[in-house]
Specification:
The protein has 286 residues and is mostly beta strands. The chain is 9% helix and 36% strand. The protein is built from 2 helices and 27 strands. Strands 3, 6, 9, 10, 13, 14, 17, 18, 20 and 21 form a 10-stranded parallel β-sheet that branches. Strands 1-4-7-11-15-19 form a 6-stranded parallel β-sheet, with no helix packed on it. A hairpin with a 4-residue loop joins strand 22 and strand 23. Helix 1 runs antiparallel to helix 2. The longest helix has 13 residues. The radius of gyration is 20 Å and the shape is elongated.
């Protein structure tokens, strides 16, 4: 939970993570990026058997597999499987299912795939985003964004083939732009719907699709009076804390946060939040 798996290589299964025969798997709030694997699949994650498997609020990006499942390879028996509010993009594989490959050898499993963005994954074979082998007792897909999938759905509704409009995917920012079709477009009744998104923002009302809720109302930490202005006093205090290594709100100040604060101050002090990933979401007003 809350971990980053990056730049790992697995010769056989699971470049980023491999879980084998677990009775219960809960994989929540993780960033899985730039991992790769060899001949059995799962560039990002490989799961082999489990009674209840739950994936929520994860991003799988830029992972690669020499077999199936560039982002994730899920090989299940007869469990419950929940795949809710995840983002998978820019994963690649030589075989089917560059985003997620789901193997269901039994017919008694129940699978819920809701509120996910599975987009712009590239397979050298077929079915770029989702490939499902076999079928369970129930296999449902609701309010997802994907372009290329193979599955025998028991039920599906409002799944769309449309660009999710990520903020800056070329620089690994998979937050949503203000005009994204994923905003307020998810299923509020999805099972195991996470209360918070990957950034810790609450989900209320109709959730967004994907791992991130769109929000543009958070001020920069240097803006202590929350008036969308970083004045000279605020910047100097914040910058001094950064230079001397003092904590700010009980946390160490990252250098790029201090840099953005300085840019806002020099550009006229007023700024806004674009909804992109922090700290680049905070932009000086023109």
């Amino acid at each position: 939970m809350g971990s980053t798996f990056t730049n790992n290589r697995g010769d056989r299964r699971g470049g980023g993570a491999y879980l084998n025969m677990c009775s219960k798997v809960t994989f929540t709030g993780n960033t899985i990026t730039n991992n790769s694997n060899g001949y059995e699949g799962g560039g990002g994650v490989y799961i082999f058997l489990g009674n209840t498997v739950t994936f929520t609020d994860n991003t799988f990006t830029n992972n690669s597999s020499e077999y199936k499942g560039g982002g994730a390879y899920i090989n299940l028996g007869p469990p419950l499987f929940f795949f809710i509010n995840n983002t998978m993009s820019q994963n690649t594989s030589k075989k089917n299912g560059a985003g997620i490959y789901l193997r269901i050898p039994q017919t008694t499993g129940i699978f819920y795939i809701h509120n996910n963005i599975i987009w712009n994954n590239i397979s050298q074979a077929d079915f770029n985003d989702i490939a499902v082998e076999g079928y369970g007792q129930e296999l449902t897909a609701y309010n997802n964004i994907f372009s290329d999938a193979k599955a025998l759905w028991s039920d599906s509704d409002n799944n769309r083939n449309i660009d999710p409009l990520f903020s800056d995917p070329d620089n690994n920012d998979f937050h949503l732009k203000p005009n994204s079709p994923c905003i307020n477009a998810g299923n509020p009744n999805a099972p195991e719907l996470p209360e918070f998104d990957l950034d810790g923002n609450p989900r209320t009302g109709i959730p967004d699709i994907g791992a991130y809720e769109f929000t543009d109302n958070a001020q920069h930490p240097a803006d202590t009076d929350n008036n969308w202005t970083i004045d000279a006093s605020e910047f100097q205090t914040y910058n001094t804390h950064w230079q001397t290594g003092k904590l700010w709100n009980d946390q160490k100040i990252p250098m790029d946060y201090a840099t953005i604060a300085g840019l806002i101050y020099k550009k006229g002090q007023h700024y806004h939040n674009t909804g992109a990933g922090k700290p680049h979401c905070w932009v000086p007003n023109e």
